[in-house]
Queue: 2 jobs
Job 1
Amino acid sequence: MPVTDNEATGAAPASNEQLKKCQACGRLLPREDFFKHNKSEDGLMCECKECVRRRHEAKKNVSRNPLAQFTARQLMDELSRRGYKGELTYTEVKVHKMKLGEM
Ligand SMILES: [Zn+2]
């Protein structure tokens, strides 16, 4: 049977059954790109390793920099409310960096 053959090799990355969709980034990735999670139905976390790592990084950034927990819009609103026009550009750059880390 060719089916058992495929299962035995398990080397076909194109097979849909071996791919899992990451709930965070929406990419279809091989199961090995997901951390194991005993409580989930398929035994894997719903987010890929990359997203989990990025989420951890984002959390670290929040504890290091309290501003990181705000969205760009919230920061802009707060800053313009306080009249910090001069620092707006600087903050924009920081927020942009943070966003990249979360994606
Ligand atoms: Zn992901």
Job 2
Amino acid sequence: MDGRRTWMSILCCGFGLMTVQCDSQRSGELSVLPFGELDLSRSGPGQRRGRTPSGQAQAEWAAEGHRPWRYIVIHHSATQRGSAALFDKWHRAKGWDELGYHFVIDNGDGGPDGRIEVGRRWRTQKWGAHCGGTPNNEYNNYGIGICLVGDFSRRGASRRQLAALKRLVTYLAATYNIPADRVVGHCDAPNASTACPGPRLHDYVRNTLRPDLARYLATGK
Ligand SMILES: [Zn+2]
């Protein structure tokens, strides 16, 4: 890891150009982990102990000394099929350092429906490359990027994908003290000119996921 950084314009999610700052560094491996049950009773606000959505202990899931995360940014791949490994390949082919997202939730076409894949970016607690163009690159520097495989312009994500998203987002928000109003779709980011994550998934985020999360963070239920 030599720490050199370059600015580059890239096409994100099939919509619009964005600019990201990329480290020039050695490639790493993706960690593909099976989706596990999440015990929310052990992951209240500010709590970093307990099991993660991948079923691993926190210490095994991500590097010590986590970034000061402020946002959770939800994307769709705008493709019918995909996986963390496939997107990692595509992102590298564009000249990115590696998979731009921290997590990918599969849809059954490229990986098991509802599986949460943990990217190396998350495990190393690295800035994101998924939501450029915001002031001070805020949403990349402090935004956890989650991509659901699929195109949610006309149809919604699968039930298993939504269940996995809810568990993952609830866990991340509770663990890193991220309020519900900072769980956003890519299109909600300042200066965004994209329909990502698609109107159907965006509706779910705004009308179901955020209210449910706000209630959980307030009441623990
Ligand atoms: Zn996006």
